[in-house]
Design brief:
Layout lengths: L29 E2 L7 E6 L9 E7 L9 E2 L4 E8 L1 E5 L4 E5 L3 E4 L6 E3 L6 E8 L4 H7 L8 H10 L3 E2 L2
Antiparallel strand pairs: 1-2, 2-3, 3-10, 4-11, 5-8, 5-10, 6-7, 6-9
Length: 164
């Protein structure tokens, strides 16, 4: 099956200078390396990519855990392991994903991830099309003190549906 190219978004004839460079040493946008080794780097946000995708580097400290099984209705999510071992749930089974392993989860696909190992792990997470995940990453920890209504509204706004 072949798919057509996406809708044209640039209409000029000569190109333009609009690339965004992020050096490797840029500090994480969220989290602190000293706090359990957990950090999230906003490599390409929805704003940067004009809604085409969001790309994040997630550093997980030893035994960092991760989100429970969930799915998204409007976005796909993909995982690429850079270092360490990340347990990935593909909807049927948990696998120990290592450097170079990749998992793509289309809309509606059940998935989860966590670091159960005694070593840190590092991965790229890609959302397509782009979604404003930064607010989700920055505020999800506040759900512990939210009412059920606030929690449900937050998760719905961020296209995250958890399976009990």
């Amino acid at each position: 099956m072949s798919y057509p190219y996406p809708e044209q978004k640039y209409w000029g004839d000569h190109g333009e200078v609009n690339a965004v460079f992020r050096p490797a040493g840029t500090p994480p946008d969220l989290g602190a390396s000293g706090a359990g080794g957990n950090a999230t780097h906003y490599l390409a946000t929805t704003a940067t990519t004009r809604g085409e995708f969001g790309l994040y580097r997630v550093e997980m400290g030893p035994r960092a855990g991760g989100p429970k099984t969930h799915f998204h209705k409007r976005i796909s999510e993909s995982f690429y392991i850079l270092d360490g071992t990340v347990r990935l749930f593909d909807g049927e089974r948990w696998v120990d994903a290592r450097k170079g392993d990749f998992l793509h989860v289309p809309q509606g696909g059940l998935h989860a991830f966590r670091n159960d190992s005694d070593a840190p792990a590092d991965m790229l997470v890609l959302f397509t099309p782009g979604a404003p995940r930064e607010e989700y990453f920055e505020q999800v920890s506040r759900l512990a003190h939210a009412s059920e209504e606030e929690r449900a509204a937050f998760l719905d706004r961020h296209d995250s549906y958890f399976v009990e």
